[in-house]
Design a protein that fits this description.
By secondary structure, the chain is mainly α. It folds into 3 domains: 183 residues, Growth Hormone, Chain: A (Up-down Bundle); 218 residues, MFS general substrate transporter like domains (Growth Hormone, Chain: A, Up-down Bundle), CATH 1.20.1250.20; 81 residues, no CATH class. The strands form 2 sheets. A 3-stranded antiparallel beta sheet has the order 3-2-4. Strands 1-5 form a two-stranded antiparallel ribbon. Strand 2 and strand 3 form a beta hairpin. Helix 4 runs antiparallel to helix 11 and helix 19 packs antiparallel against helix 22. The radius of gyration is 28 Å and the shape is elongated. The protein starts with a helix and ends with a helix. The structure holds 1,2,3,4,5,6-hexahydroxy-cyclohexane (INS). 1,2,3,4,5,6-hexahydroxy-cyclohexane binds next to helix 9, helix 17 and helix 24. InterPro entries: MFS_dom, MFS_sugar_transport-like, MFS_trans_sf, Myo-inositol_Transporter, Sugar/inositol_transpt, Sugar_transporter_CS. One of its GO terms (molecular function) is myo-inositol:proton symporter activity. It comes from Gopherus agassizii (Agassiz's desert tortoise). Belongs to the major facilitator superfamily. Sugar transporter (TC 2.A.1.1) family.
């Protein structure tokens, strides 16, 4: 146990025995509790659950009284207001990354965009987000959290305006880069800000709400995509420009919202920090929290020294180095588990499973995004109940199994891939590689080709592999499947990117399981854990690095997916992601400590031991110490019990 933690125990046990003595002394008239409260006495009670405190009966009574008292002390609504306003940054992150796919469908027709420009408009945002997340660390340290959130909303507003008014593709590219800069700064600042203003027992839940807003933004974007897809002219302007609305709300909201008190204390603005701390803690005494933050900063400065760039100090000081590895590792494995590929690929997976109507694809993507959102909500509910570690481990285990099922689904469909039975010739006389494939599997892996076929009961007959239309993947470039309305009337089917098989339900099952398991844990926990594992002096830089890693792996995985699928086939690609997820599981099992209910200032001590011994601390769980606030003091809830007292 760290020195600080043991001091806490000593202090709180002393408070307990004082209080019990007080109680015994005053018991005859039964006025102990009320007179203490009337005198405004604020104190901490610690109850060591398996300790040998003799007077267990009165201890239990006291504990119950303290618990009742604690339940009456509500967390001030102001903390929720701060969290929701900052989580608008998460909403914009989700909206702007999600909306582009629908906008591109319209843009590529209107501005005649080729594949390269489409690629550029998608990946420029993610690339800019990676860079600005890294730079955001320096800005957060220098300016504070609030100016960074204001800066990100300015980027979002300017980007949305540029995009909505764009007359050419170059302006569009500029707008997407500006939006990316906003996403990067927001993605690293918002979780830190929420973690710093939240009380310990609600911190996990409030930071996880940010990811709920991310997935909510993605879902909202897909609905907007669906709604405006019918507006062939200028529909994309509304899709891309609408994000200005939440950005403006956030900007004006934050003009009136305060800076993080932790950052202010670090910068020596102690009066202001105290004022804000009392504002966000309502009627609770802030002395202990304030002292603990201040002492912690002073101790850290003594231990680590204040000279040299933060990243060098982090790398040379073992606890922060370990925390950095854990944080970046979590973000890397989040992306390597293929979330964005699965989301991107969901429409095809659903089509494979028998949904033949192409116009529904966009709405199907909305269903996927909604599932992701819904199960992130489960994460918000679970995070303070089961803790970060168990939630992440459970989620990644399920995700790995789901990826294996997805891969098996693709494997089955490749194994029983239908034969190509017809070989029509290109009317223009050109030689197409498509007509050389003898099985659907080869045809589906070639991005230029698709399968045109008829169904006899559930068997594929009269199939041919032909080039896909350049403007839309919904039909063939020539032949029987080149006119959508005609081929549907003639009961022909067109499969692009997939092969019709009776086992496609396996991939559908894999997709559903994937989202159900990924969304509550692996989606939000990397952000939540990163916001709490770094000490104050290293928090901005630590979060900048881990968010940067998230964005870099996001680009890598999405840019390489199609090539990976071409070289390794689809099932190979999903087995590869399952392999990464399996490695992530080992990493998390060994290295991720439980941070639930701990004060931000205590978390550093979890990284004092060698890396990958964190799992061992689990065994301490049976012997927990519980701090319960009696009227207004700062408190520290036990790991096991936070849910009981909310
Ligand atoms: O946590 C989020 C969330 O899971 C999103 O759905 C995903 O698109 C992001 O890449 C991820 O960072």
């Amino acid at each position: 146990m760290s020195r600080k933690a043991s001091e806490n125990v000593e202090y709180t046990l002393r408070s307990l025995s004082n209080l019990m003595g007080e109680k015994r002394r005053r018991q005859p008239d039964g006025s102990a509790g009320s007179s203490a409260a009337a005198a405004g006495e604020r104190s901490l009670i610690a109850a060591e659950s398996c300790s040998s405190i003799n007077s267990q009966a009165s201890g239990g009574e006291l504990e119950r009284a303290a618990r009742r008292q604690f339940q009456q002390d509500e967390t001030p609504g102001f903390v929720y207001v701060l969290s929701v306003f900052s989580a608008l940054g998460g909403f914009l992150f989700g909206y702007d990354t999600g909306v582009v796919s629908g906008a591109l469908l319209l843009l590529k027709r209107e501005l005649n965009l080729g594949a390269l420009w489409q690629e550029l408009l998608v990946s420029s945002t993610v690339g800019a987000a990676a860079l600005s997340a890294l730079a955001g660390g320096v800005l957060n340290g220098l300016w504070g959290r609030r100016p960074c959130i204001l800066l990100s909303s300015c980027f979002f507003i300017a980007g949305a305006a540029l995009l909505a008014a764009a007359q050419d593709k170059e302006t569009l590219l500029g707008g997407r880069i500006v939006v990316g800069l906003g996403i990067g700064v927001a993605s690293m600042t918002v979780p830190v800000y929420i973690a710093e203003v939240a009380p310990p027992h609600l911190r996990g839940r409030l930071v996880t709400i940010n990811t709920l807003f991310i997935t909510g933004g993605q879902f909202f974007a897909s609905v907007i995509d669906g709604a405006f897809s019918y507006l062939a002219k200028d529909g994309w302007r509304y899709m891309l420009g609408l994000s200005a609305v939440p950005a403006i709300i956030q900007f004006f909201g934050f003009l009136f919202l305060p800076e993080s008190p932790r950052w202010l204390i670090q910068k020596g603005q102690t009066q202001k920090a105290r004022r804000i701390l009392s504002q966000i803690r309502g009627n609770q005494t802030i002395d202990e929290e304030y002292d603990s933050i201040k002492n912690n900063i002073e101790e850290e400065e003594k231990e680590v020294g204040a000279a040299g760039p933060v990243i060098c100090r982090m790398l040379t000081y073992p606890p922060t180095r370990r925390a950095l590895i854990v944080g970046c590792g979590l973000q890397m494995f989040q992306q390597l588990s293929g979330i964005n590929t699965v989301m991107y690929y969901s429409a095809t997976i659903l089509q494979m499973s028998g949904v033949q109507d192409d116009s529904r694809a966009i709405w199907l993507a909305a269903v996927t995004a909604f599932t992701n959102f819904l199960f992130t909500l489960v994460g918000v509910w679970l995070v303070e109940k089961v803790g970060r570690r168990k939630l992440t481990l459970g989620s990644l285990t399920g995700t790995t199994v789901a990826l294996i099922i997805l891969a098996l689904g693709f494997l089955l469909s490749a194994q029983i891939s239908p034969r190509v039975t017809l070989n029509p010739t290109d009317p223009s006389g050109q030689n197409s590689t498509c007509t050389n494939y003898s099985y659907c599997n080869g045809c589906m892996l070639d991005p230029d080709c698709g399968l045109c076929y008829r169904l006899n009961k559930s068997n594929v007959v009269e199939s041919s592999c032909v080039p896909v239309k350049k403007e839309s993947t919904m039909a063939a470039a020539w032949g029987r499947c080149s006119n959508e309305t005609r081929f549907k009337r003639e009961e022909l089917f067109w499969a692009y990117n997939f092969c019709p098989t009776p086992y496609s339900w396996t991939t559908l099952l894999g997709l559903i399981l994937y989202l159900v398991f990924f969304a509550p844990g692996m989606g939000p926990m990397p952000w939540t854990v990163n916001s709490e594992i770094h000490p104050l002096w290293a928090r901005s830089t630590g979060n900048a690095c881990s968010s940067g890693v998230n964005w870099i792996f996001n680009v890598l995985v999405s840019l390489t997916f199609l090539h990976t699928a071409e070289y390794l086939t689809y099932y190979g690609a999903f087995f590869l992601y399952a392999g990464f997820a399996g490695m992530g599981l080992i990493f998390i099992y060994g290295c991720l400590p439980e941070t639930k209910g701990k004060k931000l200032e205590e978390i550093e001590s979890l990284f004092e031991n060698r890396l990958c011994t964190c799992g061992i601390s689990d065994s301490d769980e049976g012997r927990y110490i519980e701090y319960i606030r009696v009227k207004g003091s700062n408190y520290h809830l036990s790991d096991n019990d936070a849910s009981d007292v909310e």
